Amino acid sequence: MTVSDIRKPELMAPAGDMVSLRAALQAGADAVYFGVVSMNMRASARNFSASEMPEIAGLCREYGAKAYLAMNTIVYNSELELAETLIEQAAAAGIDAVICWDFAILDMALRHGIAAFVSTQMSVANSAALAFLYRHFGVKRFVLARECTLDEIVSIRRNLLAQLGEEAERIEIEVFAHGAMCVSVSGRCFMSQFAFNQSANRGECRQPCRREYEIRDLRDGKEFLIGQDYVMSPRDLCTLPFLDKLVAAGIDSLKIEGRGRSPEYVSEATACYRAYIDFYFACHGDADFVARSDKLKEELMRRLDAVFHRGFSDGFYFGRQIGDWSGGNGSKATHRKVYVGVVTNFFKKVMVAEIKVEGAGFVCGAELMFQGNATGVLTQEVESIEEAFKPVARAEKNSLVGVRLAQVVRENDQVYMMVPVDEVENARQ
Questions:
Q1: Distance in angstroms (rounded) separating the CA atoms of residues 376 and 319
Q2: I need a labelling partner for 358 at 20 to 30 A (CA). Which of 21, 223, 315, 319 fits?
Q3: pTM of structure
Q4: Does residue 87 sit in helix, strand or coil?
Q5: What are the residues whose beta carbons fall under 8 Å from the beta carbon of 398, sequence distance 6 or more?
Q6: How confident is the model at residue 399 (pLDDT cuts 50, 70, 90)?
Q7: Alpha helix (H) ranges present in 139-227?
Q8: 320 vs 366, residue with greater confidence
């Protein structure tokens, strides 16, 4: 199979709020998925209101991207009317698809003429299930169960062709490419419900798997060692080291997890995967492709390593690697963001941002990050600092300074500084 025979996969990014939405689009996402205040698997994320869906769809269209509404929770009988209303609003707003696994939501979406994508919560892991849902319900995209290996995904695609013939081309396969993994793999977990009466299947997970545990014998108080520290906390999935294999497998959509994570995580993860996908399709036939591919992967992995993660794993793509499903507590990122202050004005003619320094001070050469609903995420190295129209070497806390920028930022944008983890405390002083 040559690269001309492979469809360029869609890159789908998460959006937990308007800043992350814009950051994902600016970084090159082909699609974004988001939730509204109820009925999605990230109830603790900031989320959007239903009234914002027209704005979301409109912004996505400006960037030539698609917008998908996640409604991938258990739905109770008392919520059917609300669910129907949300889907009506989504269809009217121009939302491209609904991600779901409850058959009531699936039925509603199809009745209202909006595409339905089967969520990984349905745990579809074989071609017969895909063919059944396609034939009887018209479902054309499936987020496969996370337990599927790469070989199994290739087999599913091949078997679909044998079962459906040319119609198999209408079916799209979506997989997770990056982000957090659930200890229950495809996400149908009951630990939080049992421990805190807050259901992960309602988007309310309290993440008991991310905690540190001891097991003691109640009779004699002896501690049993069942592993090191965080025995149930999985590492994060990262497919960038073998992204070329996923692309070559003919996967139609690559999803980045992270609606509950920061805008800079969304921006950097999306940009890194965008860079490699574009490189693959532009350069795959070149004689030096392998060497350039390896070099680019190393560079992009350094960038991914700088934003929040719990250590990286291949997931199940190359088999069941038990060790990756524990010990992944806390962030393993090489850099952290430290709050600097807020933009109080922007002088567009001279491209200078006026910054009120409320937190950490900074010097020339520092990497500043600007975040805002209309700005998204913008990072730039500081080349010069002015205070009271005079150049200064350092912006001190409680000062009002000007910094020249290459792109527009806006009043009230939040300003952060990216620093190595071992320098965070010094930066805050």
A1: 37
A2: 21
A3: 0.81
A4: helix
A5: 357, 358
A6: very high
A7: 150-164, 191-196
A8: 366
